Amino acid sequence: MIFTVETVTLQITQMLHEYPDLAIVQSDSQMVRLHGRILVFRTYNDFTMRKIYILDIIIPLGSDELPFIIDTDRQIKQDYHHYYPNGRLCLATDSQIRIRFIDGFNLVEWMSEFVEIYYFSYEYYERFGIFPFGERAHGSWGIIQTYQDFLMAKDEVETYKLMHFIKNQMYRGHHPCPCGSEKPLRNCHGQAMFRFYKDTRIKKIMMNDLISFDKELAKENERELYRKKAK
Amino acid sequence: MSTYDRQRDILKIISQLDITPTMYKNAVTKYTSIAEYLGNNGIEANIYPQGSFALGTVVRPNAKDPNAAYDLDFVCQLRITCNDLTAAELRKKVEDIFTSSDLYGGKLTINDECITIEYADVGSIGFSIDIVPAADENEENKMRLRSKSKNPGLINTAIAIPKHCEKNYNWITNNPKGYRTWFEDINAPFLAASRMQYRQMLFEENRSAYASVEEIPEELDRSAMQRVIQILKYHRNMYYSKFNNGDDIKPISAIINTIVTRISSSASASISVFDLLNYVLNEFATYAEYQTLTEERFAERYQGKNVIGRKSGKWVIENPANPEDNLADQWNLDASIPTHFFAWSKAVRQDLIDSLKMSDEDFRARAETAFGQKAVASVWGTKYNKVAPKPVSPVIPAKPWSAQ
User: Fold this and answer.
1) What is the pLDDT of residues B351-384, one digit of tens each?
2) Which of B133, B311, B358, B373 has minimal Cβ neighbours within 10 Å of its Cβ?
3) Residues on chain A touching B403 (C-beta within 8 angstroms)
4) Which residues of B touch A133 (CB under 8 A)?
5) B372 neighbourhood in chain A, CB within 8 Å
6) Closest CA to B340 of B363, B321, B315
7) CA nearest B240 in A: which residue?
8) Which segments of chain B have a pLDDT < 70?
9) Euclidean distance between CA atoms B240 and B347, whole angstroms
10) What sign for the dihedral angle of Cα B346, B348, B351, B356?
11) Quick check: helix, strand or coil at residue B380?
12) pTM score > 0.90 for this model?
């Protein structure tokens, strides 16, 4: 459970302090809904953006569902490919957000690191036609790419190998790294992999993603086999 | 803050990016001594500037590094025609003179296209001189060029330069002197309109380099047209620095110089820098329609507009001093180049025209995006916004994703 009625109150107070043009418009046992304007004033690589966005922030209560954003005024172009038709923003993969806030969700930091950065990436993309920090493939591949960043792997295939290693093998620093570099784990991907061994909560999130990915892969293989037979 | 104040503040940034009077003096001394050295060694040659140094449109080249060196381009034209020797022979002759000379403290590098002398100089900012060897173009080629040219009077100064081509050198035609004449003719009334005011300001700011206003070389005067070119060139450097292949896809300076000059030729000489910029950007927006309109439809809708052309789908920007040189050649090899060009010109409008009417804070944000945070802060301090934007620097930044 991410938020209860009790735990959300203090964080919402902080949110309203940080974003004074937001207000609570709905609050019950299921969720808190904030509505209003936020100023996004950020800079990266000599691109400075300063713009006001009107949005709804939905914070589910008593649930494991992550908070999310609705682009109330439809300021994001409808054909932008990281945008659901109902106006919900595709901020980042759930796993990335869950791992980031493994020690407790912080709404203000989530706003700064995910929501504002979503708008920043959008404006950068509108101007230059490229993403400042890249983007994720849709669906499962995007989830694997999330771990690619965490594990500092060179591509999705290497990531997949490292994830399976974490799932099935003990950590031994002197063992060869599963990426195939022939270096000992501790001098290769070991450092990036270690957090998954150290923190069982993070490992669990990764294992669940890997299990769903493997299921999807198996289904895809079956379909492929069927197509070949049909030919 | 009024629109006028904002315009003046943007111009302050641009003049910071221009070559300083001290550096100008220094560069002239350097290239004059190179010419002298050649003369003393029995080489009859004429060394003259081309490109931005000749046109008065220099901007600091590297958008990411405010201390980057200026590149100044020169032609070393021997008093011979291209019939007197081969391109490879000329190339070798000039190379030999330079390798055996004392370069007055400069560091020599020989490239395929030119000879580069780097000077670490004047304060912390250095400059490098690129020298292209050349011979006079032969009469036969000049005749042909004259018959094709809209400006046949310019062809007389055409030169032949060695072009590296699979381990050998071939002659290609160029005409930097003709280009400069064409440019200066159109620039002259703009220059006259802004001259006295500008010279006085430059003098006040550079009392240590020159004793009186009259001493400031005319080459350092800047007209509205030259300022527009400098603004566009620097904005381009900033914009395209975001792309990994930015240097391959950005509009070359020769294109910016040519289209701005041609468009300006139909503007009033007393126009202000920003009115001219606005006018030029409006024209760019019109030419952007070539992306969707056919040649015939465009001609119907915009009679007489031919600064940028599209003949049978092929982009054409003619070099006014060389009718056989299509400056848009690369646009026809990589379709993303014109697409980016028109997207970039929209960004210029947002940053430098639309922003003049925005809030102080938004104006400052736009200027920082246009010219870089460092360049803006060094000239403006905290003017327009005392609050700085929050940098984005997470370890793994959020990357947009969706489930389907």
Assistant:
1) 999 999 999 999 999 999 999 998 899 899 999 9
2) B311
3) 90, 138-139
4) 397-399
5) 46
6) B315
7) A128
8) 1, 62-67, 102-106, 120-125, 196-207, 209-210, 213-220, 394-396, 404
9) 11
10) negative
11) helix
12) no
